[in-house]
Write a structure and sequence with these properties.
alpha/beta; Calcium-transporting ATPase, cytoplasmic transduction domain A; Calcium-transporting ATPase, transmembrane domain; 8-stranded mixed beta sheet; 31 helices; 25 strands; 49% helix; elongated
Amino acid sequence: MYKKTIEEVVNSLDTNIEKGLTSSEAKKRQGIYGTNELEKPQKRSLLLRFLDQFKDAMIIILIIAAVISIVVEPGDWIDSLIIVIVVMMNAILGVVLESHAEKSLESLQELSAPQSKVLRDGVKQTIASKELVPGDIIILETGDMIPSDARLIEAYNLKVDESALTGESVPVEKTTDPISQDVVIGDQTNMVFSSTVVTYGRGKAIVTSTGMKNEVGKIAGMLNASEKELTPLQVKLNEIGKTIGLLCIVICVIVFILESLSGISWLESFKTAVALAVAAVPEGLAATVTIVLAVSVTKMVKQHAIIRKLPAVETLGSTSIVCSDKTGTLTQNKMTILKTYLDGDEVKDLGDADSKTVDMLNAFTLCSDASIDDGKVLGDPTEVALVEASKKMNFEKKALMEKHPRVGELAFDSDRKMMSVIVKDGDHYVSITKGGPDVILNRCRDVDSDQAMTANDEMAKDALRVLAVAVKTYDTMPTHITVEEIENDMDFIGFVGMIDPARPEAKEAIRVAKHAGVRTIMITGDHKTTATAIAKDLGILNEGQEVISGEELSQMSQEELEKNVEKYSVYARVAPEHKVNIVKAWKSKNKIVAMTGDGVNDAPALKTADIGCAMGITGTDVAKNAATMILTDDNFATIIQSIKQGRGIFDNIQKDVQFLLSSNIGEVLAIFLASIIALINPSWGFGVPLLPIHLLWINLITDALPAFAIGLEPVEDDIMDRKPREKDEGFFANGLMVKVIWQGVVVGLLTLVSYSIGQYFSNHEYAMTMAFITMSGAELCHAFNVKSHHSVFNKQVFNNKYLWGATALGLVLQLAIIFTPLSHLFSLVPLDPSHFAIAALLAFSVIPIVEISKRFDKR
């Protein structure tokens, strides 16, 4: 396609430059060419997922135990059958929950999927990039990730970073001219390629290929956005599980040897060892955490936060510094011009505009890419404000552009902080440049800079954002449209001062953040005076804190910044590269840092930050791809809400671990102590208080279901009254491990007491039934203990419908195998009502015991 002229390309792809494809034609072509996606690995079938559940070491041990039991005692096959049935139920539940988690994460990927601006049915619209087809007209702007291979038909100072495809780090300047000779991809300057990035300028292109036909598709799918990764917490919990498993094997071997030496048959000793293994290993720990993370981040989408990388959820709760852009995040990004200043005049209200002021507003409008069509605002809010101001003076942009057509331009970039256009004015040509007052004044001739900056300061004190405009007249069209030629020796015209009101919810969010130990840092392109006024109004700049400018920051070494970073709450007139230094300085203080960004040059800072927050509305594709989180409403309050949710998720995971490990410790302790007692004093008639089948059932019904429900516990009301977790704070800090151990001991001892009572009044099977009731009931009750750090006897006790559902289901199933013919399959026997009541009361007593400890902790 690069050898063809634009007309030839249009004809070969049967498209229309002015209107694009029709929707019906696009749909037809998608049926022919498929979606614009790289081929994804085929999903594992349900059968394979089901078989994966049997790779767990404990499941393998249980199946081996069942087989050995059948071989050694062919007549006693019921226990083995029940073990197999429960293992199958466990596998089915695992597949269901795993599929649910996978679907949740897939829905997140869909929400953060790339979008493209395309011309269809004669209308500019945004669609999912995967819906593009050959012949589509795509519109490219700075910061866009190019969605598909395409032939350029318009290019205005267009530069593209093709390093992802060619390895060359220098952006390529693009043209629309055909190339006659054969050239490699890197020299096809009239083509743009999928997965490369627009770093400067703008353009239009015709899609020439999609999906696997793209150059990037030919290179064996070099992008793999859906690659699975374990979060640090999941890795840590897997390691905990393995450590517990190794300890368990040691204990099992010891018990097996001791029981064999004491005269107990090796089969019974083996069953005891297997029971211990089932009791000790928290096999559902990592799986539960994965499911909780997946479901929780899906819920966060409803609160306008898309988490792109699961590890970010764990980090969110520890965030202590939020570096936020001002415009659009702390403010509404709805600019309105209030004041004007003409060179040599005085600051005036917009309502007092004279003809010269109108001419200045028209110059601003011509030097903008925003427009208003049928009352719909399109473009950057600052430029929209300029266009609307002209409209108030009865000058429509469309009419202005027809009278003064644009013939050249220099796009805005954050280094120059300016934008220039060249328009035709009768027989002459005029370049119009708009930008920050300081940069414009420094490039103008014959201007009273002191008077102009006094006017700038006057506006800035009223928290107005100030924008300057200058012009330069040519008799003929400039030969070289360069910064040096166009943006020097200009004639200064004047300023406009515009207000961007603070978001009403921003002040409250900043207050909540401060109370929670999270400090807000404001980063803005405004001057120090404007930045100071806005920061004080928002409550960001407090006593003893300072404002620093980008110029002052540039003169500082990184070591100086790290030494003084805690002094500064506001950074004014900073460049994107300064953001990286600010993040690094805070990280050197061992802080977890969140940073917002929307532009191409913000990507390094977003990657450097612990939490990179990209803007969903105004953010470029580059910023979104670099971020760990996307704010779909561009709102600062969403960051603070996400921190709250992050804290809640981590809190719930800790509760899950506390519940599962304390339950496992209780099971191990009951079996281990019973085995020791049996060895020390055989006359007491003690045996194993719980069989492997009992423990497997308990782990499935009264452990796994409540654990999943606890993971979905609503965030506690006082979560933002706590300070952030320290960066190096261990998972079991603040006494969590102590709680796990002593609460596990309580559950184990209560079960052993219940078993002892049953053994005293009857026999081993009777005692085992009481132990089963107490252990399973205690774990159901204990779930309510860990649901909150506060008393269970409060109005929040009914706020988790999932926990009540899991408890009700667990209770029904427990009663079903105790009071129906199923009981003999589990080696359970009928109990005297008084003994059943004792076993149930012992189970319930775990609540008041833990409740007392909570009161003590509170004091």
